[in-house]
Design the sequence.
């Protein structure tokens, strides 16, 4: 179960970032099936809570209410006003201080209590330190990888040399993307072999090569050595990749492709619909990651359908992550529908193309990437 965060404070807080911290705490302590509620309040509110429950009419930084029954771990109440003062005193940011307080309150819920003597104080500090180290070992927020195929689409419309997706790859990186994505299609309708080779040479972050699991593409990938390959289904008639890979039906051939890429030292992601059987099959064939096809969510025609698709993605992201498969997501994501998916902590990478390149026509590629980056990083 994910953590639930809520704020009654007027300060604008990085709630998505803090939620991803809290979710990671649950996973790190094998409490992912438990409910955790974190509430951010003012000094006045925490003072009232202190008076009502503990007969101490003053503000503190954090109060934990463990629930010793059922699937609820408990509630943590944090005063933003006190956290702000402590951040200033400790020469740190409010965000960092709030992370420390979430960990502190969470460790209280696990049964540690520094008020029960020196030994307990030491054990509690040790656990807080361990958790902080563990959860910040990897980036809290997801990566943004930008697909530059549609720069090539524009070039191909005139059959000339501009705009060049190779130049776009450099701009995208300079704007702060965590990676560059290209899809080399069998019909070469946008990205060309030359693009992939040059982009491989210039990319400093990481290059994802999307491709079908054909003999020709496997040979190209083994030669070019992208940082990761995402296997996608490909139909000649489609405008863009229409559905996820059917790993269940094609299990033997995909397993073979995955192992040939692994032999060349290339990790493999499989682009699949958010369906349990496809994810189980992805695990069986040895995929390192799945990329959840977000098309049904992005194209939902009503809020009800979008809610349903969101829940399905959230559940399947959790399912894959529990199986030890890394979770990426992409397809059809836009500036208005990506933030909601960022709240799913198991998604560690977003692959976004068309909406960024479209916006780039209006605001420039650098700005378009920076704006999407702000959404994916939660600030
Ligand atoms: N992920 C995969 C596997 C894709 O095939 C595509 C489209 O090329 C994308 C992500 C990006 O989709 P969009 O261009 O709609 O953002």
Sequence:
């Amino acid at each position: 179960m994910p953590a639930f965060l809520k704020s009654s404070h007027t300060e604008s807080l990085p709630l998505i970032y803090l939620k991803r911290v809290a979710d990671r705490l649950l996973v790190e302590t094998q409490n992912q099936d438990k409910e955790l509620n974190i509430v951010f309040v003012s000094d006045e509110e925490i003072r009232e809570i202190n008076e009502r429950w503990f007969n101490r009419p003053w503000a503190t930084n954090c109060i934990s209410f463990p629930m010793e029954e059922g699937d609820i771990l408990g509630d943590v109440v944090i005063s933003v006003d006190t956290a702000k003062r402590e951040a200033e005193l400790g020469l740190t940011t409010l965000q960092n201080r709030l992370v420390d307080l979430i960990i502190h309150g969470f460790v209280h819920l696990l049964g540690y209590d520094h008020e029960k003597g020196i030994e307990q104080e030491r054990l509690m500090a040790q656990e807080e330190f361990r958790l902080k180290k563990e959860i910040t070992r990897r980036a809290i927020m997801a990566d943004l990888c930008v697909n530059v195929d549609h720069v090539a689409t524009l070039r191909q419309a005139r059959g000339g040399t501009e705009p060049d997706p190779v130049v776009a790859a450099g701009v995208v990186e300079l704007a702060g993307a965590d990676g560059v994505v290209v899809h080399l299609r069998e019909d070469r309708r946008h990205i060309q072999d030359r693009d992939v080779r040059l982009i491989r040479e210039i990319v400093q972050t990481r290059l994802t090569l999307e491709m079908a699991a054909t003999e020709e593409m496997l040979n190209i990938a083994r030669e070019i050595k992208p940082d990761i390959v995402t296997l996608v289904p490909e139909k000649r008639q489609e405008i863009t990749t229409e559905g996820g890979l059917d790993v269940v039906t094609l299990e033997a051939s995909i397993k073979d492709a995955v192992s040939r890429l692994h032999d060349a030292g290339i990790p493999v992601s499989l682009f699949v619909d958010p369906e349990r059987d496809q994810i189980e099959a992805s695990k069986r064939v040895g995929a390192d990651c799945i990329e959840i096809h977000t098309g049904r969510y992005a194209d939902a025609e009503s809020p009800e359908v979008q809610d349903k698709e969101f829940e399905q993605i959230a559940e399947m992201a959790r399912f894959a992550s529990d199986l030890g498969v890394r979770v990426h997501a992409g397809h059809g994501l836009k500036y208005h529908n990506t933030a909601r998916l960022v709240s799913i902590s198991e998604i560690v990478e977003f692959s976004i193309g068309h909406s960024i390149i479209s916006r780039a026509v209006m605001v420039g590629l650098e700005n378009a990437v920076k704006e999407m980056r702000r959404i994916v990083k939660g600030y």
About this structure: The longest strand covers residues 72-79.
